Amino acid sequence: MDEMDDGRGGTMLDLPIKPLKYRRVSEEVADQLREAIFSGKLKPGDRLPSERDLAEQFGVSRLVLREALRSLEQMGLLVVKRGYGGGTFVSQVDKAAVSQSLSAMIRLGETSVDDLTEARLIYEPEIARLAAERATEIDLAKIKTLLEEQRTTLSTQSFGQPTNLSFHRAIAEATKNPVLVILVDAVMDPVREAVQHLKFPRGANKKILTAHERIHRAIKQHKPELAYKVMLQHVLEVREMLKRALAKSQR
What is the 8-class DSSP label of residue 93? Predict the structure, then answer.
């Protein structure tokens, strides 16, 4: 973030401050700061000037400025740190926030594991298709390594064991789309947490491993439609396993 000296010992944001319109002034200030964050003019970790300097730059009172900063803090765009070295900073992106929210929704009964698995039916096959189109040798090697780990621990692993989930994440990474990686993490983590104490029939992990091998093979052969098909079949099978295990746990 670039700052300028105002000639009086204070600092100013190097931003084109727009004339404020006739609505709540704090909203106008918040909008301009939010736009600066979204455009990358203000970057994660950047420290904003002092309240006095920023209020003077916008031509508003410190009370109005505080209201604007508070609204951005509530949105998670700014964080206020107290004490030595404190101040108001642009927030770092918290990728775990979505996952934590979904976990809380499951606990509160506002959504279910089946809801999340239904969502996976929509995006996981398409992720597999994209991975088959875009995967590099490095991506394929990583997926293969995870499969080997899964195969080695087949007799001792749990249904939601880490290499199982890492396999799906590695496929998302192969798409080169960071949004899809975040999406997979956001949904898979709360599912793992919700099912870790469930009992699954013998052979469930073997069935999952076999499906993963078929998915890997389709991606390695760069066959997008086949990758889509086998991933869809896999998620459908997992959905049925989860339904039966959840029903059994509620008896």
Answer: P
